[in-house]
Design goal:
Layout: E1 5-9, E2 13-19, E3 24-28, H1 33-42, E4 46-51, H2 57-60, H3 63-70, E5 73-77, E6 89-91, E7 96-99, E8 102-108, E9 117-121, E10 126-130, E11 133-134, E12 137-138, H4 146-157, E13 164-167, H5 172-182, H6 186-200, E14 208-209, H7 210-216, H8 225-230, H9 238-250
Parallel strand pairs: 3-4, 4-5, 5-6, 10-13
Antiparallel strand pairs: 1-2, 2-3, 7-8, 8-9, 9-10, 11-12, 13-14
Helix pairs in contact: 5-6
The structure holds fe (ii) ion (FE2).
């Protein structure tokens, strides 16, 4: 079984570490170096690569310190070569970045930022989605339009249902409360109960899966007739419905 080490950083960020049997590792979105170094030391791992999903400080803040300490290489979007600190390897839509026998497909998913990418490892059945797709939510539209973000989310939605989602923040409970407020269901209420229990134990709700998100995450359901009708948006396009839901969430 694939083990991803979840590293809590800052107040609600996650970095993720994957390692091979030789102890070589990569980390995704190290917002700060300290907690990542602690986990690498604990597991006796040697950091070879940093993967950045986008340029925001709470995803790249640890880049320089880790690069200096481990002499690792930094992978990020070609579109953000001027905004990702210390970038060495620039990648674009459809590129493959490999770690041993595992290939990551680069999926460009603009909206939260224009240069945002996901790393999809089909062989590991997982995707790193940064601040584009959260469990039960999605990122704010800082640099893109609703049309852009909806297209990006549908690209992720097309991945196999069993794909595990490792996202940038622990926002799941508050996202669940938002869904409950505008599109209540028995399933979201029981999910919220499980999330409250995890929260009490200070346990992460991550990973989710594409299949679970397709059922519950309303940001992936902007083309769902039942949701559209219940929001009083009959006849609106998925992009308009998505934009409406995103606006509601921004002021939730
Ligand atoms: Fe971000």
């Amino acid at each position: 079984m694939t083990e991803i080490l979840i590293v809590k950083c800052l107040s609600d960020n996650y970095a993720y570490i994957y390692s091979n049997k030789n102890g070589d590792a990569f980390v995704v979105d190290p917002s700060e170096a300290g907690p990542v170094i602690d986990v690498l030391n604990k597991h006796r791992l040697n950091l070879k690569f940093i993967l950045n999903t986008h340029h925001h400080f709470d995803h790249v803040g640890g880049n320089f310190e880790l690069k200096e300490k481990y002499k690792c290489k930094i992978v990020g979007s070609k579109k953000d070569f001027e905004r990702i600190p210390g970038i060495d390897i620039q990648v674009s839509e459809g590129d493959i970045w490999s770690f041993d026998e595992h290939n990551a497909q680069i999926i460009e998913i603009p909206g939260h930022t224009t240069g945002h990418i996901a790393f999809y490892f089909e062989s590991l059945k997982l995707v790193f989605t940064g601040d584009t797709l959260f469990s039960l939510g999605c990122g704010r539209l800082f640099e893109g339009s609703p049309e852009m973000m909806w297209k990006s989310l549908t690209k992720l939605r097309d991945l196999p249902d069993e794909t595990k989602i490792y996202c940038g923040h622990e926002y799941t409970l508050s996202n669940g409360n938002f869904i409950s407020s505008i599109y209540p269901s028995d399933e979201i209420e029981s999910k919220i109960d499980r999330l409250k229990s995890l929260d009490k134990q200070n346990m992460p709700s991550i990973p989710s899966t594409i299949g679970d998100e397709k059922r519950l995450n309303i940001f992936l359901k902007a083309d769902d007739e039942d949701l559209i009708n219940s929001l009083g948006l009959t006849g609106k396009s998925p992009e308009e419905v998505f934009g409406h839901i995103r606006n509601l969430k921004d002021s939730f």
